[in-house]
Amino acid sequence: MEQEGLQEEEREVLQSIYEGDECFKQLDARTFQYKYGASDPIKTLLVELKWGPNYPEERPQVNLDVFYNRHLLAGLKAKVQQLVETEAEQYLGMSMTYSLFEFVKERFEELIEEQPEHALELEVDKLSVDVQESLGAKREKKEQLTKAQKRRQWNRLDAKGEKPRGWDWVDIVKHLSQTGSKEDGNPGT
User: Counting CB atoms within 10 angstroms of each CB, which of 74, 153, 158, 160 has the fewest?
Assistant: First the structure.
């Protein structure tokens, strides 16, 4: 009960502090995002904090696995998450969302230095290597059919592309007349 009151109070404070700030976004009553480095699309970071039911007695959940951060290296994401979680330990029992967002803002330039300038070019190189490897594999040639052969195959099939029912059935009367019966084979007995 006490935590809900503290959460509501902190929510109002965050809304008043970040009013008009396009980098701040409140997704729901307990989830907040802040975007850093809006000038360069490669060197940007989005930090998402989600409060648990016992917040601020427990630290918020830090999420960097959002679509906006898909260009970041996994090592950088892990480092930022670990730093934010470590920083949150000292604020347990107090409102900490603003402090954590500001902590990342202060250390953003230092953190983002690990991100390469040309992350997209690395992905393109990987793709081109894959294309070259697939060209090396030999393709199987399809059997070339003439128009007449294709037409004959098509005429043998029904509308569903299947052979008609009974296409391989044997005409019983014709079969028996060819084989004959055992009694007919010995006329002398």
Answer: 160
Rounded Cα distance between 183 and 188, Å, is 10
Whether a cis peptide bond, with omega within 30° of 0, leads into 53 is no
CB neighbours of 142 closer than 8 A, spacing ≥ 6?
Answer: none
Question: Can you read off the two tokens belonging to residue 141?
Answer: 């040639």
Q: Does the pTM of the predicted model rise above 0.90?
A: no
What's the length of the chain?
189
Q: Set out the domains of the chain in order of their start, with CATH numbers.
A: 2-118 (3.10.110.10)
- pLDDT score recorded for residue 133: 56
Decide if 119 contacts 42 (C-beta within 8 A): yes
Cβ-contact 114, 122 below 8 angstroms: no
Characterize the bridge pairing of strands 61-63 and 24-28.
unpaired
